[in-house]
Write a structure and sequence with these properties.
The complex is a heterohexamer, with two copies of chain A, two copies of chain B and two copies of chain C. By secondary structure, chain A is α/β, with parallel strands linked by helices. Chain A has a single domain, classed as Hypothetical Protein Ychn, Chain: A, CATH 3.40.1260.10. Classes of the chains: A alpha/beta, B alpha/beta, C alpha/beta.
Chain lengths: ~130, ~100, ~140, ~100, ~140, ~130
């Protein structure tokens, strides 16, 4: 079965990203397909490579990046939500005249259409939030 | 045609749990995750409401979240079923849609 | 967002329900939910919006955000008809608990192309029992 | 020696408003800000509780937040006082401490 | 954080109350509140912690976070005595509503230097009326 | 009177930062002193210079930066909370081996002791959160 996953909250502050990760991993282990993980609202903050969590804590961004690598996951950060919250890739930074970018490997920035597409294509859409 | 409802907040903190129970259809499933697992504890002020809801729909609680809050199977209201993340995936697959009460 | 960024999607029509349960301005969920609805409108799916619990405050008439320094996005609900988003279900019980009546809500209308472009109300007050049936009739439920 | 309590969430969504009212001392002030302003509306399911609380402490509501949610002075439960941000500052200064019910 | 980053502060002792009203793990507030308490302990203020509403779950015994992949920070509460944080007020009514008893909570103790280092319980179960008085007796109330 | 301000939530998602800003501005207009604005939890996200809000929306970061300039405000971002969430200044980025930083002008990164100090020094501490 094809799942679409929506993550609405940032890392560490709310458990949403943790639960979404555990769900995604479990779905993959059961042989399901993950069509896309879409990060919206504060969820876009999962996609910054600048986090430095304490050494005895999980690294939420690296965990997503690694899972994406292993399973060719499509991790999409909503562009509108990302702009409001300061998540940029190289292109966006250039386009907006910003001197730095912070997107993490394995994440890509795209439009809200990607969320609707996930709703249309996936057999089930599962939303994780506050 | 049935729905998997997910609730992730304590009924003591937010109204989403009660609102969810007010909108389930007979045959639906409700899965308590994250802070919502505290609703599954017997003897709480919400136990009666939960017991009543269990007659109309199937109630599940996410085991890993339950354990994190210091609870286990013995603490559960009778009839609530324990699942792990794999069981959560199965529930999402078995029902026709999911409805997250955020 | 540029339209050319829109992905190619399979030619199916699904029933999408956007669930709004939160008051506007205290959090951004109402505004960003509306942004999804606007983008989603381009995909020609069967779209409905549900307003229940504190979500009914999103439709209250006369919102004035001058004092809080935030943008008043409530006029956008009035424009939904132009995007062919015409089914805004508002739960009666949620209104009543909050001391609100349908008269406290904005007037939101659309022009019905199947009825000689007659102007019709987009807001449909429904009972909780009806809301349950609406929710149970969807392919995709998005709540934020 | 009195306290300014601030509440920022709707009583329909969270329990913080009721928890706050359960912990005020006679002579304290409660200021409703952000989404909590909906608690000040007359005719709501919480109106009776709010009216009762108004006997023990002084209730205020932040005007700019009230207006943003489409309400005005006419919608308020009798006895609730309207303040702007400057009035909020005055209240914080006049009371010995603030207690934010987050 | 390095101790040498600690600012010079005026030589006054204030009553600080940290209010904990949220369950652990679902959000980070409980953990980050505890981090403030630990840093704050170095300032030799008169520190109390209040646990009410869902905050009482922070002290429940037997928390096992293996399954959720998060760090179990509950042992840190047991260490608070070493930081001379010895007043943990837990509201009785909050426990009861949740079907909890004081026996469900962790054993947290401190050694009383004024009483020949006798080991004493840090958790003090108080009624709501007592909690009101504790809150009304503070200089600074921090809630997160 | 001396006020200390605590902001516990990030920009745009919750109104906390807006209300804190309006309160701070009103207090300054009334002649009060703002000893410090301390950003904790997701509040640290107010301090990134990479946000690009829509043109018809308020720019929360710039608003804080400007107010700080005009009134010599001390805007402190908690270092521990900032590390978890990917807010870094040049020094921190270097120390942590990160290739970019994102702190906005007028904000500085420091320890939780700054919050306690605000509680001790200020006559009133006012907390804004979720």
């Amino acid at each position: 079965m094809k799942f679409g996953i929506v993550v609405d909250e940032g890392p560490y502050t709310h458990q949403a990203s943790d639960t979404a990760y555990q769900f995604t991993k479990a779905a993959l282990e059961k042989g399901h397909e993950i069509f896309r993980v879409f990060f919206y609202h504060d969820g876009v903050n999962n996609g910054t490579r600048l986090t430095v969590p304490p050494q005895d804590e999980r690294n939420i961004q690296e965990r997503w990046t690694k899972l994406a690598e292993e399973h060719k996951l499509d991790l999409v950060v909503c562009i509108a939500a990302a702009q409001r919250r300061g998540i940029l890739d190289e292109n966006e930074a250039k386009r907006q005249g910003k001197d730095a970018n912070n997107i993490a490997p394995g994440f890509r920035i795209s439009g809200l259409g990607q969320l609707i597409e996930a709703g249309i294509v996936a057999d089930r859409l599962v939303v994780f939030g506050d | 045609m049935s729905t998997l409802h997910t609730v992730n907040k304590s009924p003591f903190e937010r109204s989403s749990f009660i609102s969810c129970l007010n909108h389930v259809k007979a045959g639906d499933a409700v899965l308590m995750i994250e802070d919502a697992v505290v609703a599954a504890r017997k003897g709480s002020a919400f136990a009666e409401i939960v017991e009543k809801a269990a007659k109309d729909c199937t109630l599940y609680v996410l085991g890993p979240d339950l354990a994190a809050r210091g609870m286990g199977e013995d603490d559960l209201i009778a009839g609530i079923k324990l699942v792990d993340y794999g069981g959560f995936v199965d529930l999402a697959a078995e029902h026709d849609r999911t409805n997250a009460w955020l | 967002m540029a339209m050319d960024e829109m992905p190619d999607v399979p030619d199916v029509t699904k029933k999408f329900l956007y669930v709004n349960r939160k008051a506007p301005y205290g959090t951004i969920y109402a505004l960003e939910s509306l942004e999804v609805v606007l983008i989603g409108a381009a995909f020609e799916q069967d779209v409905s919006l549900a307003f229940l619990d504190d979500g009914v405050y999103q439709l209250v008439d006369g919102q004035d955000t001058t004092g809080i320094g935030m943008k008043n996005f409530s006029p956008t609900y009035r424009a939904l008809g132009d995007y062919e988003v015409t089914k805004l279900y508002v739960e009666k019980e949620s209104l009543e608990e909050r001391g609100l009546t349908p008269d406290d809500l904005m007037q939101i209308t659309y022009e019905d192309e199947d009825d000689d472009w007659a102007e019709k109300p987009s807001i449909r007050i429904v009972s909780r029992a009806e809301m349950i049936d609406i929710m149970a009739d969807q392919d995709v439920i998005l709540s934020f």
